Structure formats: structure tokens, C-alpha cells
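Intended use. Records like the one below are meant for learning the mapping from a protein sequence to its folded structure. Do not use them to infer anything beyond what is encoded.
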Amino acid sequence: MKIELLHHLFLKCNAISTDTRKVTENNLFFALSGDNFNGNKFTEEALKKGAKYAVIDDDRYYTSKNTILVENSLKTLQELATYHRTYLGLKIIALTGSNGKTTTKELINTTLSQHYNTTATIGNLNNHIGVPLTLLSMKKDTEIGIVEMGANHQKEIEFLCTIAKPDYGYITNFGKAHLEGFGGIKGVIKGKSELYNYLINNNKPIFLNADDPIQKEKLSTHIKKFGFSKTDTNYYKIDFIEASPFVAFNVENQTIKSNLIGEYNFANLCAATIIGKHFNVQIKAIKTAIEAYIPTNNRSQIIEKESNRIILDAYNANPSSMEVALKNFSNQKAIKKTAILGDMFELGDAAESEHLAIAKLANNLNIDTIILVGEHFFKVKIESKKVRQFNSFESFKTSFTSIQYNSILIKGSRGMALERTLELL
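Structure written out for the chain above:
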């Protein structure tokens, strides 16, 4: 079936679904398959649950005129997303980076939505399936789309750009994330820079943190760039005030007080500010948006529980984000501080050295107790009365004793699910 005709049918549906557990009336169901499952097997179930049409790529599951047979369901989903994005003719802002993507995306969305109808990536639907689903969630009244792009290997961002065809882009930073897939920090920089390359090759505008030397160097010859800086007067000036613990900053004689902790969130807030300014959102509206934004989903959340004040930052972790989180935590004023740290994943051959470096850093900072959880942290050899090590969350849970009157940092990779610690406190 031609994409034009499939798009015509898509417009008759209310949403895309790839999971029969979430199918609702009038959905367009895509049967996606992977190494260990065949989505085509659920075609009949999807139609019975109310899906208007089902796109399949295995003719054994063709059941009726409501079943659309294609060569490859995933490729068709991606092509449909690109067609829909072009059909709508809206502006797309893409962003990627090692840390802070989702927080920055949400800040940009809340800022731009003060003046525009926006649609942004939900959660972390930022891969080869999530990006198409994000694009297909955009409606005729959407004026600006904000698309988060994640990657753990080379050429992935490049491919996502061919699907989303962004008009603008921003890279939060280049850090030690997914080192195994990218092949080291140089590979991370090369992989994330694929967004820059796409925009430069297509003569599209780029937003940048002019205080990041990597970004500044890579975009030195690109004319269409809009940056922010604390010191470089060639760019939009934003002054950092404090992060004790929440970030406050000054722009155009307006003091903006956020609900985000840590100076590392300053750049994320600046990005949302400059993008809002570029799209003619008034600074007072930007202030209103940022001050109303409260982080959720285990990202830098402040939780008061019993006598403890908890910084829950357990959505994900890598050496770069762990370092800035620990340094920020160390600088906070508190009677006693406890850091509960979980393993960092996808580090490949660097796993041993990076976990040791983080353990040593935490031990040398102004933190009273350090609890290391996970197989990687358990292997770390460090002699310190401050440090306790557990090879799994279960062993940590079994040995747990109460913590009272503490400031507590909880941080680890998603697979560690350290938010479970809240049940123990």
C-alpha cells in the first residue's frame, strides 16, 4: 500500500498502537516484531479490541479488509511518520545529548506552550520506534513539535533525523553515556554531533550552549546559530545566581527561580529560555512557565519523608551525571548526608574504572555515608569507613537499617530501579 493511502486511513483513526494491551477503539495498530516476539500474532486481538485497521508484515495473519499487509511494519511506521510530519508542515525542534534530554525537552515544551500549541515526546519515546510515534501523535493544530532523540551507537541520531527532518536542534552535552555502544567519549561526541551535521548540511538553525567548548568549536563556522552564555557577550547573556538547592538565574532583569536542583540544570533552563525567546515568547511568560515546572518521574525530585530530605534522581545514571550530582549534593547544607548509588550500565570495558572513579569521588566529598549497590560497585576495592557495598538491591534491602535526619541522594541507572529505596525509608 502506498504511504499516501495509508496516511489517508491513518487520519480516520484516533491514535497509533503497537501494544494490544493498550489498544482502544478506532486505533491504527502496527504489528511490530523483534528478536523474541512476533507482533503479527496479535493482529486479530487488536481488531477485536476495536482497532480500525492493523498493519502487518506476515501474510499468515491477514484476516480481513481491515488488515493492511506491508513488506516491513516498522519501516512503514517510520515512513508514515515522515509523511505525516511533512503533511502537517509544522516546525520540529530536535534535541539529544548525554544528560538532561528529557528535563530539557519538558522545559522547552512548557515554555513554548505559553504561546503555541506544542506536542512533545512523551516520557523517553526517543528511539527508532518512539520518534515515529511522537511524530504521529502530532495533530493539525500542532504548531511546534519537540522531538527527543536518544542513541547508544553511531549513525542512530543520523537515522532519526531522516525520519523527523528537524528544523532546529539542540545538544544538551557530551558525557560518558553508552560508552560501550559508542566506543568511548570521542565516539559519544561523534554520534551526538550527527544532529548538528544534519542541520548544518540542510542549512538549519542550531541552538547552543556557548559555554560548552565542544559545541562552540563544532559550530564556529555555522551562521545560523543562537547561543546562550554566562560570559561571552556575542551570545544571549544569562546570569547564574544560585543552586541552594534550587537553581535561580537572572535574564533581562528578571530573576527566575526554578524547582530544579543542582547547578548542572542551569544549562537546561538556559536552553528553554533562549528557545522561548527565539520563538518570541515574552520573558514574563518564560518566567511563569519555568517557575511552574516541577520535575517528576524520578528526575531530581525533592521528597520529604519522615525526618529525611530525599533527592530522588534514579531515572538514569552515567559517570558524567553521577559526578555532577555528587558534587552538587556535597555542596548542600545538611546535618548528615547519605548517598545511595546504583550501578551505571552500558559502560563496556570502562565499567570497572568508571565505578572506581565514582566511588573515590564520593568518598572524598562532603558526604557522611556512601552506600554502593550493584555488581559493578560491589567489585570496587575501596577502604573507607564511610562506604558500604552490596552486590544487589535485595542484599541492600535485607541489611537495611533506618536512616533518620539525613539528606539523602538516590541515583543509579534505570535498571537498578533505586526508587524502591523509598519503601525502605
